[in-house]
Specification:
Blueprint: H1 6-20, H2 28-37, H3 61-72, H4 76-80, H5 134-145, E1 152-158, H6 160-163, H7 167-179, E2 185-187, E3 199-204, E4 208-210, E5 231-233, E6 240-245, E7 253-261, E8 268-273, E9 279-282, E10 293-300, E11 304-311, E12 315-323, E13 331-337, H8 344-347, H9 351-361, E14 365-369, H10 382-399, E15 404-408, H11 419-433, E16 437-439, H12 441-445, H13 450-455, H14 471-486
Parallel strand pairs: 1-13, 1-14, 14-15, 15-16
Antiparallel strand pairs: 2-12, 3-6, 4-5, 5-12, 6-11, 7-10, 7-12, 8-9, 8-11
């Protein structure tokens, strides 16, 4: 198809449009006006840019221009607004040697050789956290935003691995490093075989621990053993028990929530903080004998609480030490492990009294760390272990329905190579049915035989007994567990929060001899 050039288009506009302007009934008046004003009309100036050929669309250009000329013929004033400059003959039209300057509404062309500014890609979105921990994560985000005015509490129930407070202590360190150091949480009092990060425990004279077998899977006595499943008692005029906060990083106003029970109106004991004069505690109408009661004291900074029976044999069910939440909210982790405990151990406690203590703490997250002792069963019953995970969480959620839960697999054990994986699988199924997150400790260690490999390292992560780990091994588990617990949360820490973990108190190679 032939594309008309600028001169041809010009000729068409000047000559061939006359054929379209022949007189008619509707156009005679317009033709007369055009003829009358012809001497005054300025010819159309052709811009240089019109000489650029574009094919094949301009093949239709004569028709389009002709139709446009007819439509505009009654108003020569409209033609004048295109350009009123003197006419330039087509043969004298300039040929463009450069692109015209861009108008204000058109961006200039981009120089392909120009150096562009490097723009960093947006950071990748954090991995999604376990959906079973959504409410716990929401509480942690409130802490980071500064909108939460109470502590976020974690309750760790388990066996000797948890009682040692190396594994749970490493998790506490990670949480408090990020969200603020606000105290050790629950601590047993009067139990000298017990240890806790950041705490020094000591006793004078004899103290009794009940139930006699703390890990018993069946009900003992009346089943009232407080939050941690253990009651201690001393003897009037002889016994003393001390709990000292040794963590030098813990500052500010501390609250001390002492749990106790008097058996009769005659029983009483003394309690003191630091060098203050002892306070006499006895039964009152508000705090009658026979039930668990609480005494809340406060100090500024670290201190030592001392209890000593003065009449009878009052019971003590632990003390909770934490920073005043009004002054500074943060994360508190209560370690509640018992040597030799099984999933059936807490199910043997009195439900009503345990539920009242559990509700008093109202944890946002429960961690269940069992299975090592179940692996020692000669007859493995997976359905029983699964059922007990579900039953235990049902009991806890009966009192605190909104709590999230995390179930841990047992560690490897050298004398139960075939049984431990079966217990692990049963506990994992229980976690699924109870809508709990699950962390596979067994797989993290390396599966069957890993505990021996850990024990034979130059810096052992496991003890020689084939059951327990060293402090080094437990701390490693705790740090890995913290990564799982915090998955899905942004990495920034809230302004002004402490970043120093609790001081370690035992040799790195020390194992835990009891189960």
């Amino acid at each position: 198809m032939h594309c008309p050039g600028p001169a041809e288009v010009h000729r068409f506009n000047r000559h061939e449009s006359r054929a379209l302007d022949q007189p008619s009934a509707s156009s005679s008046r317009g033709s007369a006006l055009t003829s009358a004003r012809a001497p005054e009309r300025q010819p159309i100036r052709w811009r240089a840019t019109h000489s650029v050929e574009v094919c094949p669309v301009h093949a239709l250009l004569p028709i389009v221009l002709a139709l446009g000329f007819v439509a505009c013929s009654p108003g020569p004033e409209r033609l004048a607004v295109v350009d009123a400059a003197p006419s330039v003959p087509p043969s004298a039209m300039p040929v463009p040697t450069a692109a015209p300057a861009p108008s204000a509404s058109v961006a200039p062309p981009v120089d392909a050789t120009a150096k562009t500014e490097d723009v960093a890609p947006p950071p990748p979105a954090p991995p999604a956290g376990p959906p079973e921990l959504a409410r716990f994560h929401a509480a942690l985000r409130e802490l980071e935003r500064g909108t939460r005015k109470t502590h976020v509490r974690v309750a760790w129930y388990g066996d000797s691995h948890g009682q040692a407070d190396f594994w749970s202590g490493a998790l506490r360190d990670a949480l408090q490093k990020r969200f603020g150091k606000v105290g050790p949480g629950f601590v047993h009092i009067g139990w000298k075989q017990y240890r806790h990060d950041g705490i020094k425990i000591s006793v004078e004279e004899k103290w009794r621990v009940r139930p006699k077998a703390p890990s018993a899977p069946s009900k003992s006595e009346d089943g009232v053993f407080g939050l941690g499943g253990i009651i201690t008692s001393g003897f009037a005029g002889l016994s003393r028990a001390y709990v000292q906060v040794s963590d030098e990083q813990l500052e500010g106003k501390l609250t001390w929530d002492l749990c106790y029970r008097l058996h009769s109106a005659d029983e009483q004991f003394h309690v003191s903080l630091g060098s203050a004069s002892p306070m006499v505690v006895k039964a009152t109408a508000a705090d009658p004998p026979g039930k668990l009661n609480h005494l809340i004291l406060t100090t500024t900074g670290r201190d030592t609480i001392t209890v000593s029976p003065t009449r009878g044999t009052p019971d003590f069910c632990g003390v909770v030490i934490e920073r005043d939440h009004v002054e500074k909210p943060g994360v508190v982790l209560d370690t509640l492990g018992i040597n030799g405990a099984r999933l059936s151990t807490p199910l043997a406690w009195d439900e009503a009294s345990f539920g009242a203590e559990f509700l008093r703490r109202k944890p946002s997250l429960v961690i269940l760390e069992y299975g090592t002792n179940e692996s020692g069963d000669l007859q493995i019953d997976p359905s029983k272990y699964t059922k007990r995970v579900v039953q235990l969480m049902e009991r806890m959620r009966k009192f605190v329905p909104e709590t999230d839960c995390l179930v841990l697999a047992p560690t490897d054990r050298s004398d139960t190579r075939e049984r431990t994986p079966l217990v692990r699988d049963a506990i994992r199924e229980g976690a699924r049915e109870a809508r709990c997150s699950f962390w596979d400790t067994y797989a993290f260690m390396g599966g069957a035989g890993s505990i021996r490999a850990w024990a034979n390292e130059d810096r052992p992560r496991a003890a020689k007994d084939g059951v327990h780990l060293t402090q080094r091994g437990y701390r490693e588990l705790g740090e890995a567990l913290a990564a799982h617990v915090l998955t899905g949360l942004s990495k920034q820490a809230a302004p002004g929060q402490e970043t120093v973990g609790a001081k370690r108190g035992l040799d790195e190679r020390e194992g835990i001899p009891e189960r």
